[in-house]
């Protein structure tokens, strides 16, 4: 008996069942299912509960168990990481709270620095005033350092609960620049500090190690994700005060550009292509805002090849994140911290690759850009799936609640019993323009109101000064919609009913009735000005 996806049992794709049949020279009973999950659970059960030295005394199962490792698994793809299945099955104390497969965490802003500021402070963009990735836009500027940097969850846990605090990796994009204090500036609240100077790199970068600059080269052992993992492991192993709690923030840039995987992961996904969703490389979407309508649409084939390359390189950079998570998990377990430790896994923004014929980036209001994963593991948390929408601003109160602190922010703890299943969130973005001319040879290169126009990507621009908008995103059992207004000359509107239009192909912003539009505008205006508990908008 074997569980497998029916579509790969034809031997054309060397499905799992086909491989087992050939290895055992037996005809199997096929029970089809989706995403290969059952076959891996079955495999995991055998490996965890019937190791080589034991097991049911049945010849077929004994043969299956011994033949499994002889199969050429490269010829089929699993729908879930089988090492994760093994770990969950083998660790009865594993408890996990996950957002469901639709990824119900939404960013407060679909760009690095503003959303990181929201995570750190629990504030929406209009309250922390980090507007984009530049110093002039509030990214690690003097005003940030004078005010909000002193009120992050790190400073609160350290000052109020005597946490020992640790931060390693990317902080804010402009961190370490001379005008922002250089590498000697260590943000308040962090006992151990290994902050990346500037934006994302993987080799040839500099870390501020507790205020002292240290350069890392292009040697294999200097790969940034691995360095962060090593520093974190050293921190855990050196921790000998079991009476003092600790907080660790690990912020590897992967899979951010320049999409450089570790050498051991090169070409691991050489056959993978960008997802061909219905909105991928779509013809000109005349109902979208002008930046999306830029020609050419669809993109020429030579650009699609480049997008496929970027897509799989991003996947390959994430394999080092898998390694980092595994190292931290195992170290916590070996040092007897695991059962008392909460682990939160998330990201600062989504990403589009080819959607609506936009080459690649974030910054847009669409689901590809505003959804991020969220998983939380910790003592006392039942295994469950959360069906309520969550914002990046909620992580602040979540962390504080874990530490026994009543936080004041624009969000609510994910662990709160009062969190609503019908909730409206705010998403804000302030468009970014170019600070100086770039020699792109694009016809629009001298328009400083445009940003990220790349000749190799048909001169389609990633951003513009008037790509500025505010959205309300509602999710519940009944409603699943987004309503956005741009701060441009047109006051352009985009709105989507995602229950009927999952890929946002049909802008209904100018089709909804007046009463509904009035309600949307009223709620959006409330959220754009909200502060604290007024930002918790529920039905």
Describe this entry's structure for a reader.
There is one protein chain. The chain has 539 residues and is an alpha+beta fold. It has 13 helices and 23 strands. Strands 8-7-6-5-9 form a five-stranded mixed sheet, with helices on both faces. β21 and β22 form a beta hairpin. The chain starts with a strand and ends with a strand. Residues 1-14, 32-37, 49-68 and 73-80 have low confidence and may be disordered.
- Oligomerization category of the chains in this entry: single chain
Main sheet record: 5 strands, mixed
Number of strands: 23
CA-atom Rg in angstroms: 24 Å
Strands side by side in the biggest sheet = 8-7-6-5-9
Low-confidence stretches: 1-14, 32-37, 49-68, 73-80
Terminus-to-terminus distance: 49 Å
- Proportion of strand residues: 15-25%
Kindly state the percentage of residues in helix: 25-40%
Mean pLDDT: 86
Give me the number of helical elements.
13
Globally, the shape reads globular
- The secondary structure category is alpha+beta
Q: What would the keywords be for this entry?
A:
five-stranded antiparallel β-sheet, disordered N terminus, five-stranded mixed β-sheet, 13 helices, 539 residues, 23 strands, 27% helix, alpha+beta
